[in-house]
Design brief:
Elements lengths: L1 H10 L3 H63 L3 H24 L6 H26 L5 H17 L1 H67 L13 H78 L3 H20 L3 E3 H19 L3 E7 L7 E3 L3 H12 L7 E10 L2 E8 L6 H9 L13 H13 L3 E7 L5 E8 H4 L1
Parallel strand pairs: 2-4
Antiparallel strand pairs: 1-3, 4-5, 5-7, 6-7
Helix pairs in contact: 2-3, 2-6, 3-4, 4-5, 6-7, 7-8, 8-9
Length: 496
């Protein structure tokens, strides 16, 4: 018990651990928000710097284009390797400026404009080489080529305003993005401040409740102990420190309850001893009566059967053969009923018993009611509860044919269909309405008009279902003035 308590207590979170965990979660959240804030700022600044660098590269491009054209003019008038190299260096420098700009515009829809500018500068350089070659060879079309080259330079120079506008527009867009980002960051900061305030409020309330709620429940449990109630309410979700106090209070309650229970048990034991002594005296008095009743139960059936046999032989010796037959069948039926009411019988024994019962009833009712038994040959002699068919026939006589004066009929049919034995008991009596049929099935018919116990339909169906379970199905059909029928279907496959 102590080890279990220590293990459970170690699994609980202490008050200091709870404070540490809350603070750690707050620090992690603050660090995440701050890092996100810094990352967003760095990203915006980088984009703005890229746009600014692109602007400087564009300045450098037009500067080197002008320088390239000037160096070309110098080379025409003063051809030298140094002047030609200066011309080529200016061309290469302008190309590098454009490459930087297009690299910064990767994925931008305006990149094609700078590619167009790259094509223009490349065309200018190629045409400049042609002019230089034409000048060296003193070709007649030199002036035409030279004027074309000057026109290309002027076109490139005129694009400066348009391209400066493009870069300036990007700078404006970046400025707008920076302003939007600042507003977003301000909203995030405001939200974060509200979150921190809410967090601190939640933390304070949680900490206070983690202390006050268990203390309040402990006080309630102490008051219950004062009132004599020892089934204390469990205190859950407590920290390690409070758990020690709660367990100590529970141990105190159990100790008090055990002492009170011990005193009550001792008192009850003394009371039971006195009651047992009185019971022993009563048992001695009733023992003789019990032995007498057992003897009577053994003598009465034996005496009754001997009496019936004596009457049967007397009637037979006097020539009253019909009376002797009635006595013999009554004796058989009575013996079967006493031996099998609460025991297991068989189908053949049930059929033999119902033959005796029908014989007696036929003598009683004469022409009013005919009793017919039709059973197929080679029927399997399956096991079944005793006294099943007689209550069904009795029900047909008492409830269906009680008021008939002629042409009454009770039919008992036993057939085998595939793997099932089907037992059917029907009559052509008055039948009953559906509500009366339901009442008949549900009612046990515990008492008859003569105050004797009957098995009833409910008792028969109940015993069949208890004995066979799902292996039997029982269907009852009846309509008012259309007779009554009960069908019992027993599955032989499952019985095997």
């Amino acid at each position: 018990m102590m080890k279990r308590w220590l293990r459970h207590n170690d699994q609980l979170e202490s008050f200091s651990d709870k404070i540490f965990n809350y603070n750690l979660m707050l620090i992690v959240i603050v660090a995440f928000v701050c890092s996100t804030y810094v990352m967003l700022n760095i990203r915006i600044i980088d984009k703005f710097n890229d746009t600014y660098v692109s602007y400087n590269d564009l300045n450098g491009f037009y500067f080197h284009v002008k320088e390239m054209n000037d160096n070309f003019q110098v080379y025409l008038y003063q051809p030298s390797d140094a002047n030609y190299k200066a011309f080529r260096d200016s061309y290469n420098a302008s190309g590098k400026n454009l490459d930087k700009i297009m690299l910064s515009l990767k994925g931008n829809e305006r990149k094609w404009r700078f590619e167009l500018l790259q094509n223009m500068i490349d065309k200018y350089y190629i045409d400049a080489e042609l002019v230089i070659a034409s000048n060296l060879q003193q070709e007649e079309d030199f002036n035409q080529k030279y004027q074309k080259l000057i026109h290309e330079y002027e076109l490139i120079a005129k694009t400066s305003g348009e391209y400066y506008d493009i870069v300036t527009e990007d700078m404006q867009l970046q400025k707008i993005a920076v302003n939007d980002n600042q507003r977003t960051l301000h909203l995030v900061s405001l939200f974060f401040i509200l979150f921190v305030i809410t967090w601190l409020a939640y933390f304070s309330i949680t900490m206070i409740r983690s202390m006050t709620d268990p203390i309040e429940k402990i006080m309630n449990n102490m008051n219950r102990i004062k009132m004599g109630e020892y089934d204390l309410s469990k205190i859950s979700n407590v920290n390690k420190e409070m758990n020690v106090l709660c367990l100590a209070l529970e141990d105190l309650s159990r100790s008090i309850q055990k002492n009170i229970q011990y005193a009550n048990d001792k008192s009850d034991l003394e009371k039971r001893v006195l009651e047992q002594q009185n019971e022993n005296l009563k048992k001695d008095e009733l023992l003789a009566q019990s032995e007498l009743r057992v003897l009577q139960n053994q003598i009465n059936p034996h005496f009754l059967f001997n009496t019936l046999n004596m009457i049967y032989k007397k009637a037979y010796s006097e020539g009253a053969y019909e009376t002797s037959e009635l006595m013999e069948r009554t004796s058989r039926l009575l013996r079967y009923a006493l031996d099998n009411t609460s025991r297991i019988s068989s189908l053949k024994k049930e059929l033999a018993a119902i033959e005796n019962y029908n014989y007696i009833q036929a003598k009683r009712y004469g022409e009013r009611i005919r009793f017919i038994v039709e059973a197929e040959e080679d029927l399997p002699d399956i096991r079944m509860p005793g006294m099943i068919l007689q209550p069904l026939v009795e029900n047909a006589v008492l409830h269906g044919l009680q008021d008939v004066t002629e042409d009454g009929e009770v039919m008992i049919e036993v057939t085998q269909q595939n793997d099932h034995v089907i037992i059917s008991v029907s009559d052509n009596g008055v039948g009953m309405a559906s509500d009366e049929l339901e009442k008949l099935i549900l009612n046990d018919y515990a008492k008859g008009s003569d105050d004797r116990v009957h098995l009833g339909l409910y008792n028969v169906t109940s015993r069949l279902k208890k004995f066979y379970g799902d292996e039997v199905s029982i269907i009852i059909n009846s309509l008012e003035n259309c007779g009554f029928e009960i069908n019992i279907k027993i599955d032989l496959r499952r019985r095997s």
